[in-house]
Amino acid sequence: MPLGPNQAFSSPNFAFLVKYDEVPVRHAALAERYVFDDPNSALIKLRQFAELLAQHAAAYTGVVVEAYESQRELIDKLWDRQIINAQVSQLFHGLRKAGNEAAHQHTGDRREAHHQLQMARKLAIWFHKSFGGDTHFKVGAFVPPPDPHEAERGLHTELERLRQALVATQEQIVGTQQLVEEQARQRQQSEAAATRAYNDLTAALELAAETEQQLEQERQQFQQHLADLQAQVAAAPIEQRAAVVELAQHEAEELDLDEAHTRRILDRQLREAGWEADTRMLTYAAGARPMRGRNLAISEWPTANGPADYVLFVGLTPVAVVEAKRRRQDVAGAIEQAKRYSRGYTVAADQQSPDGPWGEYVVPFLFATNGRPFLRQIAEKSGIWFLDARQDTNHPRALEAW
After folding, report:
1. Do residue 238 and residue 378 come from a single domain?
2. What is the CA 28 to chain-centroid distance, rounded?
3. pLDDT tens digits, residue range 262-300?
4. CB under 8 Å to 17, separation ≥6 — which residues?
5. Of 22, 58, 197, 269, which residue is 20 to 30 A from 280 by alpha carbon distance?
6. Domain finish residue from 226, 254, 282
7. Residues 310, 284 share a domain
8. In sequence order, which residues have a C-beta less than 8 Å from that of residue 10 and are 6 or more positions away?
9. Contact 259, 90 (CB under 8 A)
10. How many domains does the chain have?
């Protein structure tokens, strides 16, 4: 669906989806444009992007989408048909929840919008590899937006990490050992290229400013496109349809998140369970300390055996330590690291003791997780592993939720 004369645009991170339809790409591009200037709008656009992507996935696999069906129901339907796995479902739901909060509670900060933009790109790559016939697709590193003015320290740190990853990807392509000067030059080139890409995107989107009539026409065209795709899939041999579903499942298993992104997902899970959690801002180094009347998940809490990823406080009492791992790492074995933090914990004078120690353990409840939803068939690599250390006869076990 072309945008019209002189209105074409190229998204820095989602351009590879144009071959399917420009409507989802436009939503993603608007989110890229607004991620720092208007994070609330960016989160809403990302929710809409995820809705369009889920509808597209349903069309490619012959799943009928009813007119009254919500995004939550569609995600669950794709899960029930085994088209997406728990990880992909979790990313879809994360975009749905963040977008709903932005729409109904008028919330949304830059770091959340930036994080969800990266999660949307993870889903876009999964979609393209699953339904685009290019399983060897090399998309390259995420292109971070230029630095926003007056950004907080945590966001600057994340942007710096992404810029380094972008340079590392370019070095890998070159295949040579780079000197410090060459790395600096490549970094400057990467930053300049990213700035140009986002500036070009902004200019193009401003030229392509939409009226409500244009939006309605595009939505109708998009729905007709999905209906035509559904008809093609329905006419295909059953073996061909099964192969598409099998590939989507395989690519879902290949999806991976690093520890930083996993922490953002854990933050949301902990908040939904009643804790105040923000792995970038609610940290020991930033001055976060336990407070009466608040349930705080304070990250990077120092112990004699290294910093714990999170210590959970009920008021002034430390009740749990949490070890967070990246997606692909074993969870059951990570409980050993949580044990070390409990052993090395010191209850400060301004804290209240949790009534231990219990043998060698100071903090009673130990958790380890990689953020993946619990699946019984891969129990040791999913869910939230828990150990009540107050009795030495207790053993670690997997929980389905916090």
Report:
1. no
2. 15
3. 888 889 889 989 999 988 889 999 899 999 999 999 999
4. 11, 24, 25, 28, 124, 127, 128
5. 197
6. 254
7. yes
8. 197, 200, 201, 204
9. no
10. 2
Q: Which residue in 49, 54, 48, 13 sits closest to 32, CA to CA?
A: 13
Structural Rg of the chain based on CA atoms: 23
What's the full length of the chain, in residues? 402
Q: Structural domain of residue 264, as residue ranges?
A: 259-399
State how far Cα 169 lies from the chain centre.
Answer: 20
Q: Identify the three-state secondary structure at position 1.
A: coil
* 126 and 172 inside one domain: yes
Supply 263's token pair: 């922490």
Q: With 0.90 as the threshold, say if the pTM is over it.
A: no
Q: What is the pLDDT of residues 236-252, one digit of tens each?
A: 888 887 888 888 877 87
Instruction: Please write down the long-range contacts of 243-246, taking CB distance under 8 Å and 24 or more positions apart.
Output: 244/60, 244/61, 244/130, 244/131, 245/61, 245/81, 245/82, 245/83
* CA distances to 214, 218, 307 from 211, in Å: 5, 11, 52
CA dihedral 132→136→140→145, nearest 10 degrees, is 20
